[in-house]
Each structure stands twice: as C-alpha cells, then as structure tokens.
Design goal:
Number of helices: 29
Radius of gyration: 28 Å
Largest sheet: 2 strands, antiparallel
Strand order of the largest sheet: 1-2
Amino acid sequence: MPPLPRRDLRKLVRKLGVHRRPNEQQQALEQLAALCQDQSSGTVHPEAVTAVADTGAISALVKLLGRGSTVNVHVAAASMAMFIANDAAHAAAIVAAGAIPPLVQLLGRGEPCTLRSKVQATAAGALGILAKTLEISASIVAASAIPPQVQLLGPSSLVGAQKSATVALMFLYWHGEVATTIAGAGAIPPLLRLLGPISSAEMQQDVAGALLQLARSGDNCGAIAAAAAIPPLVLLLGPGSPDDVQQMSAEVLAILAEHDENLATIAAAGAIPPLVQLLGPASVADVQGIAAIALGCLALQPEHAGTITAAGAIPPLVQLLGFCSSAAMQERAVGLLVNLAVHTENVATIAAAGAIAPLVLLLRQGSPADLQQESATALWCLAVHAENLATIAGAGAIPPLVLLLRPRSPTDVQQMAARALRRLAMNVTSVPWHGWWPPLPLLGPRRRWAFSDLPRQRANVGGTNSTAPMRVLAPPHT
C-alpha cells in the first residue's frame, strides 16, 4: 500500500477516538497496520511506523487497550502497539503513555474464546518486544506481569499465546533476580511440556532459550533437574534439531552438569553420544564449544570418561586443536582432553589419535596463557606412558616448555611446564639443554579450576553467545 499523506493519517488516527464506534476504530487500526506491515511478506516498514507514531497515534492506542474496548479492537490495538514498540524511541513513548498496565490486564484469562486468546497472544507479544529494553523490563516486572504470563504457558492457551509468553519471559529474565521469581511462579513444568515432539522447532527454540536463562541463575538448577528437564533436553541434541536449539540445550545441560548430583542423570539419559556427535565438523563452532564444555564436566567422573572415549570423542577433539579453530575452541578441546587423560586408561587412545603434535604447537609463544597451561597439562598426562615420551620429545615439546619457565610467563604456566619437564626428565635418559632452567616450583595440592566465562550478552530470540564454565581436573602430585 502506498504511503498516505499526513492529512489522511491524521484522519485515521482521529477515528481511534474513544467516542467512535468500535467498527470504525477496528477499520482504522487495520488500515494503519496495513501501512506499517506488508501483508504478504510480513515486513515492517519503519518509515510508515514513524509517520503513524508522529501523528499522535500512541496515546490513542493506549486508550484503546483499556477495558471499554471490544475484543476485536483490543487485538488490533495490541498488534499496532507491537509494530510501534519495535523502535526503541517509540517504545519509550508507549511506556510513558501508560501502556504497560492495560497490556498486563489483557493477559488475564477472561472468557474462554479464540478471540480472547488472540488478545492474550498479542498483548504478550507487545510486552515481549518492550521487554527487550532493560529499563522497560523493570516496569513490566513491577506491573505484576509474571504470574499471568506463566499462566499463558499452560495447555488451555493457544500456541500463539504460549509462544508470545515464552519470548516475553525470556527477555524478563535479565532484570535483576526475576529468574527466581519466574521459577517460583511455576514456569518450569509448563515450559518443559512445550519441549515435547508435538511442538514446532520455533517453539522448542524459544523454550530452550527460556530454560537457559533460568539455568544461568544457579538457584534454579535444582528445580530444573527435579522437574525432569534432562531427558527432553537430551532429545533436542539430535540431528533433527536446528543449531540454535542444539546449542541452547547443550548449554543448559552443561550448566546442570556443574552440579555433581546431576552427572549420573545426564549420562543415564543418553546425553554422551549426541554430545560427542556435536563435536564433529557438521556442527557450527558455537555448538562444538558448548558440547566440549558439557562433556568436560561429565568427564570428571571415571565411568563417564570411559563412555566419552568409547563414543569416539577423541578424534574430533584432536581436529579442534588445529589452526582452523579459535583459541577459545582450542582451549575447550584441550580442557576436555585433560579431563579424559587424567584417567590413565584413556592416554593410549589420545596419543594414538595424534594429539601430541598439535598440543606441542599450542605451547608456542603467542598462544593465550590459559591455552599454554592446559596444553602443558595434557602433555604431562600423556607422559605417564613411557611409550609416549619419545613422541613428545620428538614433536619438539622441550624447547617451548623451557621457554614457559621464564619469568614473563604466569606462575601457573611456569608450574605446569615444570611438571611436564620433570616427568619427561624422570623417564628420559637425557633431556637436551635448552637454556635457562630455574628451580622447579613446589607442587600444590590437587585442585580444580575453571575456564573464564565469555562475556554474556542480553538474550535474543534464536541464540545466545554465552557459555557455562568448564571444570578441569588438576594433576595430582607427581
């Protein structure tokens, strides 16, 4: 539809007045919506939205969201509010005009009819778009929007209402301690029901994102596991799920695996084979990284480490050590290899897969200190077998390990390089001299340490860039 002159826009906006007949209001809203969105492609026209907002439509729309309007007008007004709220400046104007309280009121169940459910879906959708702005999300929480949105997740709601409520809640998780409030309102069981195979891939993606935000608040991990979330999350790791769904499901499992009481349940649900599959080249890098972190937590226990090795995890991990991988990916792959290699029954398989040469290359100057430390740890573990000593020395490990002993290296890196060299020196007849050799540092007690968290960003529908930390077993006394 071609843009209307400003005078004609004002005429349409005047028809939104509260004293107009409902059918006039509805027709005017539908005409404005047709101007703002292409009906065939669904594309929103920002310039048309701005023109409508500038003619004073916002205050009229907020009034139509009130109790005196018909159901059809409520649907049209809430839909129009969704278009306008996509612009941050207009969203602030809608909130300033007092839109949040009536939108929250529209979430109420009212009479059980299809139109009323459509009102709920559009109102939840408008609140979800407004909640993208952190300051506005605080106002939505303050307006007691969480309980009615949790109710919309139930089986009596239409799919559209469930989806809109899920997305709105996902954005609200980023406001303070609201994740605990959402879980306390009973959101976890209905969210898990929406993970089932009858749900669309888009719904599963939204629900997995919502569960991920809940899991990131550590207080909710117990409730998620107790609600039997692990089996459906494992099912979403399969090849039939989109990359985003696989990544978010794997990350929820990785966060749950940070709690030792969940490790047996995750393994028993069959998570290890699909997580190992996600390490392969068919997966995108983000999915590979999260899968490595989840498996790294499981590998802390010997029985799970053996299962991971038997499932074929080591060859793809060795591939991830190559120069085609980012430093963060290499660090995760090395961390998992360390957690597998501290169980000596896996050492021969790791060495046979060709891990030694790329691990030596990761010791080079220019690699991040954490990556150098983990690579030295992996070589220390592999050196426990005498048959690997010549391979490690032949791959050129000794010169870079000696360089890591110099004062410019962090203390942890120096200590791990010293441990690796000491093990090599105790088992090799002669170690070539490669310069300055300081006294070996005193070995500390057995401990665990964590990878640094990547910066976490506000959620967006369809993906997340954050990771759960990986725990890595520290080597015991040599």
